[in-house]
Design a protein that fits this description.
Helix 2 runs antiparallel to helix 3, helix 4 packs antiparallel against helix 5 and helix 5 runs antiparallel to helix 6. The chain has 21 helices and twelve strands. A seven-stranded parallel sheet has the order 3-2-1-4-5-6-7, with helices on both faces. A five-stranded parallel sheet has the order 10-9-8-11-12. 46% of the residues lie in helices and 10% in strands. It has three domains: 146 residues, Alpha Horseshoe (Serine Threonine Protein Phosphatase 5, Tetratricopeptide repeat), CATH 1.25.40.10; 173 residues, 3-Layer(aba) Sandwich (Rossmann fold), CATH 3.40.50.11380; 180 residues, 3-Layer(aba) Sandwich (Rossmann fold). By secondary structure, the chain is α/β, with parallel strands linked by helices. One of its GO terms (molecular function) is protein O-acetylglucosaminyltransferase activity.
């Protein structure tokens, strides 16, 4: 590289950022670390280099190293809001070693979030505005997987990010007026304009489960749909999305550019299917770009954002007191809230041996992301193994970090040892699978074990396409209740547990009683059609959009 030290450091940062912005992959994070370390040899007191290192280490699941980098950045610049922001958001590990670590990380996050909130209140507006580029770079995405009530933490987080974004973009920090002079209502022919801000217009779980069916079946004469694609990944689903939208805008753009495009389209309602996985969607969702803004159960139980007016969910998904779990107004669409079409099933044209499985074993599929498995439930697997005997549990390795997979394995092994069992005889860790091989694995399994507290969604639906019995236990919050709601809609509830002990009993009984397992399998095959092509939720969604307008004070004022 040529140029001054500062130019060279900038080049190092650009290369590292390029690697980190690719889909998570260990080799790229390691390369990013190399570039940031090179930048530090050129300028040892560069705070940005330490924060970049922190993010790269976090990608690899090396939380301690990530937090050490944040500490070094704070030591160099104690007043750096960016360093404080990183240190706060990275308190939440991806995978936990113990239940105590879950609680301690939660306490640290809360403490640092409070401190960050206080610092922002006292900081000059310009200093707060400069932090806007950091919003979404790191986020509390993994907080939900602790399984606790996050409402107040999310409310505080929402205040923080909206305060930052309002300082940088004051023109989009206030309530937007509804388009004047005439806003469509039920008895007019003017279509309602719905904008969809999304970073995953591709074969992503939120697209497949929630958004695809809505876009396909909303009345296109009554609703004009505008898509704002924030991501770069494209596939066959992208083409389908484009065909369903009145307007589709994509490309790499600044927040200013996106804000201008969206506000110029004058959407009545802006829908964010998720507000946690994409940096640009996180930033935009903290602004007010439309009179009415809403999100879904795509990730968080609640966004916490004061800029989000409504939370679109399903009646079967939510407990009775669910409004207390949301900072937005909860909208309970019928059933699961989704119009879902199942994937094309691939048969079991491979043998079990191809996946490291014994032909004689009862195979339990545990195919959630590893961060959904909490340490307090590890004892279930050796308990089941001891009772069933010849069985195997299939987990998927973490797709972007061998270190995270090792943390999980090292945590699980003592649970088997305590039961005087050899974990290697019972646990099979599969690498990331293609869609086809994932379905082949489902076809070879006997039983699907759901994760507890934060349930599966796509994984559960895809297990059901193969008629697998699903063992689940409804949690307290929407993200822990999806699988049980799915089974409730199917009318197959004999495998829905009422306690952790009951969960283990059901899993053991299914493993030992082949006849009952076959009965449940047949029930799954006969009833799974009840999950598919549910138009009632789309009809309710259409009515909800019009109701939002009718209940908006600005709308009433305009009339």
């Amino acid at each position: 590289m040529m140029g001054t030290n500062q130019d060279t450091v900038t080049d190092c940062h650009q290369m590292a950022t390029l690697y980190l912005n690719h889909p998570p992959e260990p080799r790229l994070s390691v390369l990013a670390i190399g570039w940031y370390e090179k930048a530090l040899t050129l300028e040892p007191e560069n705070v940005e280099s330490y924060l970049g290192l922190a993010k790269a280490y976090h990608h690899l699941g090396q939380s301690e190293q990530a937090l050490q980098c944040c500490d070094q950045a704070i030591a160099l610049e104690p007043d750096s809001l960016a360093a404080r922001y990183f240190a706060c958001m990275l308190q939440i590990p991806i995978i936990y070693r113990t239940q105590k670590e879950v609680l301690s990380s939660r306490h640290r996050y809360h403490s640092q979030l409070l401190e960050l909130h206080q610092r922002l209140q006292k900081a000059p507006t310009q200093a707060v505005a400069e932090l806007a580029t950091v919003v979404g770079t790191v986020s509390p995405f993994y907080l939900i997987y602790q399984g606790y009530d996050d409402t107040e933490l999310q409310r505080l987080y929402g205040d923080v990010v909206c305060h930052i974004m309002a300082a940088r973009y004051p023109q989009w920090s206030y309530q937007r007026p509804l388009p004047f002079p005439k806003t469509p209502v039920h008895n007019t022919t003017e279509p309602l304009r719905i904008g969809i801000v999304f970073g995953h217009f591709h074969n992503h779980s939120v697209w497949k489960v929630i958004l695809k069916g809505w876009l396909q079946h909303l009345n296109h004469e009554r609703f004009q749909l505008f898509g704002y694609s924030l991501g770069t990944k494209k596939d066959h689903a992208t083409d389908l999305a484009r065909s369903l939208l009145h307007s589709y805008t994509d490309g790499t753009r600044s927040i200013e550019a996106w804000g201008q495009i969206i506000s110029t389209d004058h959407p009545h309602v802006l829908l964010y299917p998720e507000v946690s996985m994409d940096k640009i969607s996180i930033q935009l969702s903290a602004l007010r770009l439309a009179p009415i803004q809403c999100t879904t159960w795509g990730t968080y139980v609640t966004s916490g954002l004061p800029t989000m007016d409504y939370y679109l969910s399903g009646d079967l998904l939510e407990p009775r007191n669910a409004q207390h779990h949301h900072t937005e107004k909860l909208i309970r669409l019928p059933n699961l809230s989704i119009h879902y079409t199942p994937s094309q099933v691939t048969g079991a044209d491979l043998q079990r041996q191809a996946y490291g499985l014994r032909s004689s074993s009862v195979v339990y599929l545990c195919l959630q992301s590893l961060f959904k498995y909490l340490p307090q439930y590890d004892r279930l697997y050796p308990q089941i193994a001891k009772a069933v005997g010849d069985c195997q549990f299939v987990f998927l390795k973490h797709k972007s970090s061998e270190a995270l997979t090792r943390i999980f394995e090292n945590r699980l092994r003592p649970a088997f040892s305590d039961a005087e069992l050899d974990m290697d005889q019972f646990v099979v860790m599969q690498p990331t699978l293609s869609d086809a091989n994932y379905h082949r694995l489902n076809a070879l399994g006997d039983i699907f074990l759901d994760s507890i507290d934060v349930a599966g969604t796509t994984t559960t639906l895809e297990a059901i396409t193969h008629d697998l019995p699903v063992v689940t236990m409804p949690g307290e919050f929407v993200r822990g209740r999806v699988s049980s709601a799915i089974l409730q809609q199917m009318g197959v509830i004999s495998t829905v547990a009422t306690s952790v002990e009951h969960y283990g009993e059901i899993a053991i009984c299914l493993g030992r009683n082949k006849h009952w397992r076959q009965v449940v399998t047949e029930q799954m095959a006969q009833n799974k059609h009840r999950l598919y092509d549910d138009l009632s939720c789309v009809e309710a969604l259409e009515k909800s959009f019009f109701t939002f307008l009718e209940q908006t004070p600005v709308f009433q004022h305009v009339l």
